[in-house]
Amino acid sequence: MTNKLDQVINVDISLSRKTISQQGFGTPMFLGQSMKLDRRVKTYSNITEVGEDFLESDPEYKMANAAFSQEKTLPTIAIGKKVLIGTTTITSAIKDSNDDIVYTIPNHNLEAGCTINIVGWTETEYNGSYNEFKIIDTNTIRVTPATVPTVTPATGSGSITANETWSNAVQKCYEYDNSWYAVAVTSNVDLDILSVASKIESLGLLFVFRTSDEDNLDSANVNSILYRVKALGYFRTVGIYNGKSIFRGKVYNG
């Protein structure tokens, strides 16, 4: 027998995202670059647990505290790590039997996916930028150089810096732990917001950002972040304007 409803309307729902657990549907992730975590993503059940890893002055702590301070608090939140390392000393660099270079960087806190830049060695083959490397342990990494060093070990005074885009950080956090659904980041820089928004839209998650730029009070201002997100047609990205001296309470969904 034909369903009479099918004779009137046929609805095909195609909106989807990658698998997420029902438990994680209400779990937010706060993404920051304080570099306090020993992993990409860590979950917490209360602010006391957060305080074991972060200082009260850290933006990740402040965001977590706001979440746990609600009248109807969340059972869990997640905090993710975006890699940002200033200049750090490399204590040794040596070519191994595979012609790869093994760098010793005490307590480096690096994560796969970030870009590293190495300078300072007299032998230039030991210097360079890499976005692919193997983490051996918390003190050692291995890279494949463009040119095999002819001298080993390296001489000079090596140092390393590391960074990654916000988009890549979201992707790596998702690959590490996808039990969260919504994300907020510690940056309110427009380019960072657009980087996260693009990735979140492709993953089918939810992104909530904040801005205090008064350009957003003019809905016709094409340079404002709220206008740009809406123009991109994003519908999983939500912007909230919160000014310093005034609060309009405007919420825009692209």
Mind sketching the topology for me?
Blueprint: E1 28-32, E2 41-44, H1 47-51, H2 59-68, E3 77-81, E4 84-89, E5 92-95, E6 101-104, E7 115-121, E8 128-130, E9 134-137, E10 140-143, E11 156-163, H3 166-176, E12 182-185, H4 190-203, E13 206-211, H5 225-231, E14 237-241, E15 251-253
Parallel strand pairs: 1-3, 1-12, 12-13, 13-14
Antiparallel strand pairs: 2-3, 4-11, 5-6, 6-10, 7-8, 7-11, 9-10, 14-15
Mean pLDDT: 88
Shape: globular
User: How do the strands line up in the largest sheet?
Assistant: 2-3-1-12-13-14-15
State the helix count: 5
Secondary structural class: alpha/beta
Helix content: 10-25%
Total beta strand runs: 15
Q: In what range is the share of β-strand residues?
A: 25-35%
The name CATH uses for the topology of the largest domain is Rossmann fold
Rg from Cα:
23 Å
Between the first and last Cα atoms, what is the distance in angstroms? 42 Å
Order of helix and strand elements from N to C terminus: EEHHEEEEEEEEEHEHEHEE
Q: Which consecutive residue ranges, at least 5 long each, have pLDDT under 50? A: 13-24, 245-254
**What quaternary form is this?**
single chain
